[in-house]
User: Which sequence fits this backbone?
């Protein structure tokens, strides 16, 4: 698949899959699609329809890049780490949104600075520092001191990270 990057043994992230990509994902055993595009980016729901036709679960969490809420972040974590959901493919227009949220969880769990997220994203071939909307969200989140909902999610969903 073009633009797909394995995040861990359960999660692959990337850009919007086309019909061939969806078939390949299904053939590889992927069971769940998590779509983080906002409603204006979905172009008629083609990915959802084709994914469901192939027997894959489809979860849409419409995230407007410059209006990310904690509820959306937590919904993403709950869907990604729900038992039995994997393996799964998380995507947005370019794949940056799912990567940013996964790295945020990892950074909070490991008490890493904000720069950790940007360095790790670069290793995935994505520049989050140059993405002004995601950069602003991550920076504001880190500076807000409101990490308790994320820590609680980690305790519930990924206690091995703590």
Assistant:
């Amino acid at each position: 698949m073009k633009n797909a990057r394995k995040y861990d043994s359960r999660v692959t992230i990337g850009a919007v899959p086309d019909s061939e990509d969806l078939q390949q994902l299904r053939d590889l055993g992927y069971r769940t699609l998590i779509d983080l595009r906002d409603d204006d980016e979905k172009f008629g729901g083609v990915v959802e329809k084709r994914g469901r036709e192939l027997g894959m679960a489809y979860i849409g969490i419409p995230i407007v890049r410059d209006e990310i809420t904690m509820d959306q972040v937590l919904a993403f974590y709950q869907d990604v780490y729900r038992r039995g959901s994997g393996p799964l493919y998380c995507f947005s227009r370019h794949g940056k949104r799912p990567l940013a949220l996964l790295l945020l969880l990892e950074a909070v769990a490991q008490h890493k600075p904000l720069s950790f997220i940007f360095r790790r994203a670069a290793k995935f071939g994505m520049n989050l520092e140059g993405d002004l909307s995601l950069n602003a969200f991550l920076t504001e989140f880190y500076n807000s001191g409101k990490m308790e909902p994320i820590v609680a999610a980690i305790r519930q969903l990924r206690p091995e990270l703590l």
In short: Helices lie at 19-27, 46-53, 70-80, 96-109, 114-123, 132-144, 148-157. The radius of gyration is 15 Å. Strands lie at 5-6, 11-14, 32-35, 57-60, 88-91. The domain at 5-157 is CATH 3.90.190.10 (Protein-Tyrosine Phosphatase; Chain A).
